[in-house]
Structure formats: structure tokens, C-alpha cells
Amino acid sequence: MTKGASSQRGAPSRTRDATIGKTSRTKRTREKANSRAATNWDKLRRTTDAQIREGIERDPDGHPTDATFWKDAKIVMPTPKTIVTMRLDADLLRWFRQQRGYQTRINAILRAYMNAQQA
Questions:
Q1: Residue 22 pLDDT more than 90?
Q2: Largest CA distance in the chain
Q3: Which of 5, 73, 98, 106 places its Cα 20 to 30 Å from the Cα of 33?
Q4: What b/e readout covers 41-73, taking b as 16+ CB neighbours within 10 angstroms?
């Protein structure tokens, strides 16, 4: 096959120069993202076990668990997802892709629609 040729009726390849999948972040982008959610590792290393326990006890959302809490617990394995290819309007996809996790959001919207139809 010659350069620039395609197996589909001689049309040029549409994906030759297209970005497929995720692109890697540049060092500067990673540093910027890390600075927003940076962990102060030095402060964490200096924290004693007693200070950690005290912080847990003060946390209003922290509740200790015991055997009673776990007695009826069941392991639920997530169902695997199926890879699909579908055609969506470009503006719709662009809107969803504005935030991370857009595929999960699309899945949740479709699930909500399915549940509403079944009710």
C-alpha cells in the first residue's frame, strides 16, 4: 500500500493525523494540577499516631465500625462494561467532554432514562 492510500476505495486515511485516546499531559500541566491538590508530605510524616486518632475522633463523618456493622455485608462485584461505537452529534460530545468522567456521566444519564422507562 502506498503512502496516503487507504483500503477504503482509495480515500485518504482519516485517522493518520488524528489523536486517538488520551494524550499525555505536559510536565507544566502536571505540575499545575498537582499544585492545586498537593499533599503536604512533610507535615503528614510529622503527624503522630495519636494526632491521627484524635483527628478521626473529632471527624463528625467518621463512625467506628464493629462486627455488627459488617455481619450482613455482601461483596458485590461491579458488572463489566461493554465497549460500543456510536455516532453522536459533535456538539453534544463536545459538551460532555468538557469535564472528566464524561463517559460515566453519559452512562448514568442513559441508566436514569432506562429506569424511568421501566417504572
A1: no
A2: 72
A3: 106
A4: eeeeeeeeeeeeeeeeeeeeeeeeeeeeeeeee
